[in-house]
Amino acid sequence: MLLGLDDTDSPDGMCTTYLGALIADELDRMGYTVSSCRLVRLNPNVVWKTRGNAAVCIGIVGGDPETVLKIACGFVDRFAEFSCEKTNPGVVVVESAPDPAYYFQALQRFCTIQETVSRLDTIHALYKGYKNGRGLIGALAAVSSVLPDKTYECLAYRKAEVLGTPRIFEDEGFFISEEKTAPHTWDTVDFIRRAIVCVPHGKDPVLYGIRGESPAWVQEAAGYLKTEEPAFSRIWETNQGTDAHLLPLPKEGPAEGESYRFSGIVASAPKTNRGGHVQFTISHVGGYISVFAFEPTKYFRNAVRELACGDQITVCGSFQKGVLHLEKFRPEELAGQKIRVSPKCPVCGGRMTSAGKDKGYKCRECSARVREVPDLSRTLQMKWYEVPPGSRRHLAKPAVRMRDQDN
Ligand code: ATP
């Protein structure tokens, strides 16, 4: 039997994985056999999401579906953030996995509440939708999910009495954890910015989430951390870090809210707009698409700025509000031009500007000066360039996981 759950949280608290973990623990205690705990991320472009568009599926061996629905609904009644307008929980119980086509639709495209309810009735699922019932979409997608590629996340949750207070932890443990277990784990820290990225900042109950290739690796990585004592933790199998959201670009061009991987030619050189967003145009078989590396993607923009007209590249990203939000790119063939970007500062790595005719360059960040005109030939290699861990979408496959067949 599979139990699906979604849409229980709000920006002010809760998290559907937390509720799922509580239910799994309760089922364990009651003598049920919990055979799997799965966390799926669905279309990252839906407007209804609170944070990462997560839904959960708990696999249970044996037992009575009516009782499981009742237990799960008891937890939703008690914990869901009903006061939030955007919180519309859904609980689904099925005796066997439904057609995965619905999962792929929720992952890569859009679903309606009406079609979901009609599917639930057709497959004779037990279900309960609260308020407008939107959570039934994620709950049905979770029980319908198949993971041809999967990763794991060890999520540790905070004790009830500390919720809403700052999380207590030592930075060092996270860096040690990354050093000891990367590339088998990823997105624990951003080494370049010396930042911890696996600890959320909000009022939700997650203490940290360690992502990796197997339950053993995420468990080992969590063992290096020094934090406040978690209430409990659970290892979830997930579709995170698998690029499962990406579709090939259709001939007729991109559709709003879908995510793609495709190859094209850089048709207009990157420009940095006000606000620090870097924009260029890519041409593909069907036309032109405006591509953005937004300011929060920080040093990723330096690689994007090195692109030049005529470069052939493969890009991955989501099409939202008429532009492609770049997640990563890989140069296939460089056009051979030199670029017109200012050089990098040898002291702090920031961008330098000309200090005047024959006066070399001055750093905009730390004011360091260099006399000699640096070599502006391009440093781009034929490899994946990706946004920093802190700006990565949950579904985006990190470069460390890109294998030959992905190239
Ligand atoms: P939570 O931790 O509660 O799951 P979240 O950030 O994952 O938070 P939700 O609060 O679940 O986001 O909100 C997402 C809502 O969008 C859910 O009701 C879900 O059923 C719905 N949804 C998910 N994918 C799609 C889709 N492809 N089309 C339409 N609705 C979707």
Which characteristics define this entry?
single chain; 407 residues; alpha+beta; Alpha-Beta Plaits; Glycinamide Ribonucleotide Synthetase, Chain A, domain 4; OB fold (Dihydrolipoamide Acetyltransferase, E2P); nine-stranded mixed β-sheet; five-stranded mixed β-barrel; 8 helices; globular; binds adenosine-5'-triphosphate; ATP-binding; TiaS-like_TCKD; cytoplasm; ATP binding
Description:
A nine-stranded mixed beta sheet has the order 5-4-1-3-2-11-6-10-7, with helices on both faces. The chain has 407 residues and is α+β, with helices and mostly antiparallel strands. It folds into four domains: 2-144, Alpha-Beta Plaits (2-Layer Sandwich), CATH 3.30.70.2200; 151-238, Glycinamide Ribonucleotide Synthetase, Chain A, domain 4 (Alpha-Beta Complex), CATH 3.90.600.20; 246-336 and 383-406, OB fold (Dihydrolipoamide Acetyltransferase, E2P), CATH 2.40.50.1010; 340-374. The mean pLDDT is 93. 20% of the residues lie in helices and 29% in strands. Adenosine-5'-triphosphate (ATP) is lined by residues 6-9, 15-16, 42-43, 46, 48-55, 88, 106, 110-111, 134-135, 137-138. Residues 133-245 form the TiaS FLD domain. InterPro entries: TiaS-like_TCKD (IPR053870), TiaS_FLD (IPR013696), tRNA_Ile2__agm2C_synt (IPR024913), Zn_ribbon_TiaS (IPR055394). One of its GO terms (cellular component) is cytoplasm. Its main location: cytoplasm. This is tRNA(Ile2) 2-agmatinylcytidine synthetase TiaS.
